Amino acid sequence: MKLMGDGLRSFGDAVVQCQAWSSGEPRPSCSLDDIPAVLKDPQGFLWLELQQPGPDVVSHLQGLFGLHELAIEDVHLAAQRPKLETYSHASGGGEGETLFMVVKPLLDSSGGVELGELHVFLEERVIVLLHLGQVGSAFAALERFRRAPARLGRGRANALHAVLDEVVDDYLPSRVGLEERLDDLEGQVIDDKLREQETLTSLYAYKRDLMKLRGAAQPLEEMTRSLGVSGAYPEWVTKIMRPYFRDVHDHITHLLSELDAQREAHLGLLNLHIALAAHRQGVVVRKLAGWGAILALPTMVFSLYGMNFEVMPELKWTWGYPLVMSLTLLGSVGLHRWLKRSGWL
Q1: What mean pLDDT comes out for the span 58-85?
Q2: What are the structural domains of the chain?
């Protein structure tokens, strides 16, 4: 992820989406010069989305919208945990309030779970989205906001819902991908198609992606619950919008339960892999012990004759050597058959 030191210096280069509305209807243009007029419009609303904003761009945004210095400090530091906070600030001779939210949108899940960082500033007639890294190809919160029913209006509650709904919905395909990876790993572990090191590496990579996704989704459960279920932000979420936030809360709750189930399945698969590895090691040890016992018999017999005793009557007997060899061979074969029936070979 590119942090603030690598951000874009030009405001125009950093802008990804800019859309303004007046009385619920989209304005024909949206540029830096149009923003003051939108902010003065009592029926206006502005959606401003930027990518990798540099320090100069962030300072300009702070002066333009009166953003709180603590929230701006979080933007400069980056690598923030998902959270939801409110800040008071001076606005038009009075006092306004800004809702500040940090979420981790999904950037890519093809080669693993890759998350971005999105800082959201929400005021009465404006929403500002700052992508501190790349923008995911599937991230389309503005389109979701545009498709929202007209009766919900083009206001801050609807805009906040569009962002949260987009982030949560983008998590769902990644959860399905993780489930498919776990199924593949389960088949490989049971069929023993991977080497020991490859299996452990794959299991660890899966757990890392699973915990990364869960760590990004877990705070959203509390955030959506406070917005849509407990009603902790009545001034931000109107009664008509609460069912929509509850729907997002249901989605994130279901996602977390699925991820918890996958975590338990992963733990069981890891234990199975360890048990199978121990079983394979035990089989090898038994086979080595069995062959060692078979080889011990001729070794003992031949070592006796290697002592060069002078009084060994069978040395001068014509059939002594064939008899000893035959008895040794029969003993070894009998021991082999017994070990084979016992499952040691």
Answers
A1: 89
A2: 1-139 (3.30.460.20), 279-341 (1.20.58)
